[in-house]
């Protein structure tokens, strides 16, 4: 399996990623995913028995079941990016059932999508694959567009549909982030009371974060967003892979320490991602990185992201557009290639 992963990456990139040894946070300090992660880590927390069972449902389903890692199919782009723009490349996904079929065919750990999608098919599929209801969205029809997330339904409705988890987005740094933070903290508290797990999309949004480069993807900014997310007791953090660092200093706000940049991170992508993991309570709360937009070399890009996430100490990948904007069999192949990384015991922490 390792030889196939190396071939997909290419020799030069494979060496760069697979031979890297991190000198920032020692790997022994990371709570890395493993088969008994819920017993050893989550059982020490305040999560109730029903929530632990829901986390177990996520961790024990699909091809990666029992490994400690997750492979989730997310499809909320019909709202976030417009349905036409999202599904035009493969119009079968205008039908919600095909979203679930893709997740089943690819042996995903779960499928994360909207109230409407799951409401249309929940009775048929809730017992066949763990369902994650995304409870808020940026509706994108307001002109000019604004950075806001509004709730589309209730936590009770998600529970009634048989969901094992709810997901939500907070746009940290936006003018509406305080309201979103309060709303989602309350929603997650209720979800835990009902026994559902919680997943937080911790995105940064502020036009001031674009300077000489786009610092929305800076390790220091995304890392702090993660830290805020785990503070409201998200069980899983979803974050974009970092591409740079020094957002606080470039924008000129917040508080920093020189060691954030000299000792706790380097320019290597695995080290930048490990800084994100460290801000998730050193991996006690799992980090899912995004698969990103579909492009010209999706298979290699997805495998590269998976290797970075796994070697940094992350929980897995939540990959959507690279899979559903293609014929279903090609989408399944990309998800399977990502799962190969997490199933491969020869790829370990850096």
UniProtKB/TrEMBL annotation:
<dbReference type="GO" id="GO:0004332">
    <property type="term" value="F:fructose-bisphosphate aldolase activity"/>
</dbReference>
<dbReference type="GO" id="GO:0006096">
    <property type="term" value="P:glycolytic process"/>
</dbReference>
<dbReference type="InterPro" id="IPR041720">
    <property type="entry name" value="FbaB-like"/>
</dbReference>
<dbReference type="InterPro" id="IPR013785">
    <property type="entry name" value="Aldolase_TIM"/>
</dbReference>
<keyword id="KW-0456">Lyase</keyword>
<keyword id="KW-0704">Schiff base</keyword>
<dbReference type="Pfam" id="PF01791">
    <property type="entry name" value="DeoC"/>
</dbReference>
<protein>
    <recommendedName>
        <fullName>fructose-bisphosphate aldolase</fullName>
        <ecNumber>4.1.2.13</ecNumber>
    </recommendedName>
</protein>
<dbReference type="InterPro" id="IPR002915">
    <property type="entry name" value="DeoC/FbaB/LacD_aldolase"/>
</dbReference>
<dbReference type="InterPro" id="IPR050456">
    <property type="entry name" value="DeoC/FbaB_aldolase"/>
</dbReference>
<comment type="similarity">
    <text>Belongs to the DeoC/FbaB aldolase family. FbaB subfamily.</text>
</comment>
């Amino acid at each position: 399996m390792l030889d196939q992963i190396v071939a997909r990456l290419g020799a030069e990139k494979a060496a760069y990623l697979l031979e890297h040894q991190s000198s920032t946070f020692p790997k022994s300090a990371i709570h890395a995913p493993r088969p008994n992660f819920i017993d050893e880590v989550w059982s020490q927390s305040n999560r109730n028995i029903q929530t632990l069972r829901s986390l177990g449902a996520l961790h024990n389903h699909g091809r990666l079941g029992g490994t400690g890692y997750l492979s989730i199919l997310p499809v909320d782009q019909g709202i976030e990016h417009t349905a036409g723009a999202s599904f035009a490349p493969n119009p079968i996904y205008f039908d919600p059932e095909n979203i679930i079929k893709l997740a089943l065919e690819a042996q995903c750990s779960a499928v994360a999508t909207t109230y409407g999608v799951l409401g249309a098919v929940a009775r048929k599929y809730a017992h066949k694959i763990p369902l994650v209801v995304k409870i808020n969205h940026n509706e994108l029809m307001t002109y000019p567009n604004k950075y806001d997330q509004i709730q589309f339904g209730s936590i009770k409705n998600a529970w009634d549909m048989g969901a094992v988890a709810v997901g939500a987005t907070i746009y940290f740094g936006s003018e509406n982030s305080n309201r979103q933070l309060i709303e989602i903290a309350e929603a997650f508290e209720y979800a835990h009371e009902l026994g559902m797990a919680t997943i937080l999309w911790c995105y940064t949004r502020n036009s001031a974060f674009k300077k000489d480069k786009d610092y929305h993807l800076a390790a220091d900014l995304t890392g702090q967003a993660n830290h805020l997310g785990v503070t409201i007791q998200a069980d899983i953090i979803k974050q974009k892979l970092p591409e740079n660092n020094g957002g606080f200093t470039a924008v000129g706000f917040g508080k920093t320490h020189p060691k954030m940049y000299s000792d706790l991170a380097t320019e290597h992508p695995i080290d930048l991602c490990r800084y994100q993991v460290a801000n998730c309570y050193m991996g006690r709360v799992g980090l899912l990185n995004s698969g990103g937009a579909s492009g010209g070399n999706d298979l290699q890009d997805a495998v590269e992201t998976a290797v970075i996430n796994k070697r940094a100490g992350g929980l897995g990948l939540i990959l959507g557009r690279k899979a559903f904007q293609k014929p279903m069999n090609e989408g399944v192949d990309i998800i399977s290639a990502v799962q190969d990384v997490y199933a491969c015991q020869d790829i370990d922490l850096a």
